[in-house]
Amino acid sequence: MTHSLHREGSPDDFYDDFTIICMAAKGYNDKGSQDKLRRFLRLAMKHNAVNFGNMEAGSALVGNPEDIIEAVHDATTVQATFASEDDLVHILQDLHAEDLGMSIVVQGLIEKVEECCQKADLVPHTWNHSLGVWGKKEKLPPQDIREITTMCGHGMVSVSLVNKMVSDICKGKIDYQKAAKILAKPCICGFINPVRAERILKRMVEKI
Amino acid sequence: MLVDREKCVGCGQCVPYCPCIAIHMDEKKKAVIDLERCYECGICLLVGSCKFDALVYQEMSGPRLTRYYYNNVLVKNPVTGMTGRGTAEMKTNELTNKYAADEVGFGIELGRPDVGANFRDVQLITMALAGIGIKFDAGAPTTLEMEDPSLGTFPEAILDERIICSIVEFKAKTTMLPRIIDVLRKVEQKIDTVFSVDMVSRAQVDGSLPNVDIVKSLGVTVRPNAKTTVGLGRANV
After folding, report:
1. Do B227 and A105 touch (CB under 8 A)?
2. Among candidates A147, A186, A139, which has minimal Cα distance to A166?
3. Does A142 touch chain B (CB under 8 A)?
4. In a domain? residue A189
5. Cα distance from B161 to chain A (closest Cα, Å)?
6. Based on the domain organization, do A95 and A164 belong to the same domain?
7. In this structure, is residue A85 part of a structural domain?
C-alpha cells in the first residue's frame, strides 16, 4: 500500500510535512521485529513526531501513545509524521546509529528528503514517485480539500468532514487545533499532520 | 453498515465521517445508510461517531464481502491473507530485490483520491495492460481477485462492487515505459473515475533514476514529493 504517497500540495507547502514508515520484510526479518518496531516509535516520540501510529491500534493524535506502542507485534507496520526538517534529520541519524535492521521509508519533498538523508549519511535505495492523478479529474473535490484528505492514503478522511470542520470553525464551535484532531480520527495509521492540517484549514477559512 | 433505528437518536454525528456520502438523516430524523453507495469501510463505527451503538455491521456474503475486505482497512482479506489493498511494493526493496535497476514498478490506484471506483473500472485498465503483455504482481490483492490474470479480467459478480481504491501492481523492463504510459493515456479518456499513478525506480549505482527522465521526456508530470527506502533494512545494493 502506498498510503504515504500522493499527498497533494504545492512545493512550498511541504516544508513541514515528512513521514516515515518502519517495517520488516515478510519472510526476511519479520520474526523478532517487535522490539525494533517499538524502538522506532520511541525514537519518533523523542524527535517530536506530531503524529504516529500503527494500523491495528490507531494514531497517537487520537489514542494513548503507550497503548499504540504496546500493541506492536512482529511484522506490524508502524509510521510517524514530522513537521520539522531538523527532527527528520535527527531521527534518521539515530536510526542509522542504532541499526535496527528494519526498512525505513521516508516521504517528503524530494530535494529535502535527499538533503536529510545526506546529513544522516544515508543513501536512497529505491524511490516511489507520484505521477499524479489521471482520468476523470472533474470528479475531484477542490484542491484545498484534497490537500487534507490525501494525507490519509487509505482515503478514510472524507470531504464532508473537512467541510464540516471549516464550517464549525467559522461558526466558532471549535478551534483549528481541535479541528485537526477530529480530522485525524479516521486516519488510523497516523499520517495526518496536524500542523499542516491547521495551516490548510486557516487558508480555507480565510477564503470564505 | 446498518443503523439500528431503535438506538439512533438522530444526532447526525456519523454523517460527515462517511467517505462516500452514504449516510443521511430521514424525515424522522434517523440516520439512514444507502447500501448501494456504502463502501462497508466501517469508518463511521471505527471513529466512535455514535455514542448510542446504533451503527452495526450487517451480515454479508458473496460479492458484498469483497467490498468489505477491500474497504475496511482493519480486516484481513481471506483471499489475500493480508489487510489493506496493496503489497509492501518498494518499501523493503533493499532486502527483497523485488525491483531491479533495469525495471520499473507501477501501482495504478483506481478511485484515489476521494472519488472511488468499481472493479469494472479496474478491469478497463487491467485488460488494456494485459493487452501489451503486462504480468500483474501475483501477490497483490487486486491480482488475487482476478478471474484470469493473463487477460486482466475479474469475476462478473464483483464488477460493480464499490471500492475506495484498488491498486493494480506490476513491474516491467524499463524499455516498456513508453508503451505503459501510452496505455494509461488511452484508458484515462474512457474511464469514469480517477486513478493515481505510482512509479517505482531502483536508483542506479550513481544514484540516477532513468525511469524518471523517461517519463518526463514523455510529458508526464512527476510530483515534487516522493518516498524512498533508505536501505536500513541492511542494504543489499
Report:
1. yes
2. A147
3. no
4. yes
5. 17
6. no
7. yes
Gap from A2 CA to chain B (nearest CA, Å): 7
CB contact under 8 A, A2 and B235: no
ipTM over 0.90 threshold: yes
| Domain ranges (residues) in chain B | 2-59, 89-217
pTM of the model: 0.96
Task: Tell me the backbone φ, ψ of residue A174, rounded to 5 degrees.
Answer: -140, 160
In this structure, which CATH number among 3.30.70.260, 3.40.50.1360, 3.30.70.270, 3.40.50.620 belongs to the domain B89-217? 3.30.70.260
- Which triple of cell numbers denotes residue B174? 524499463
Which of B215, B230, B237 to mutate against chain A (most A CBs within 10 Å)?
Answer: B230
Residue of B nearest to A105 (CA): B229
Same fold, B2-59 and B89-217: yes
Domain assignment of residue A21, given as a range: 11-119
Residue B208: all three cell numbers together: 540516477
d(CA B230, CA A127): 9
A97 in contact with chain B, both atoms CB, cutoff 8 A = no
The Cα angle at residue B12 between residues B7 and B13, in degrees rounded to 5: 95
CATH number of B2-59: 3.30.70.20
Give the mean model confidence (pLDDT) for residues B93-116.
Answer: 97
Cell numbers of A80, please? 510517524
Query: What mean pLDDT do residues A90-119 have?
Result: 97
Question: Which among B15, B198, B207 has the least Cβ separation from residue A2?
Answer: B198
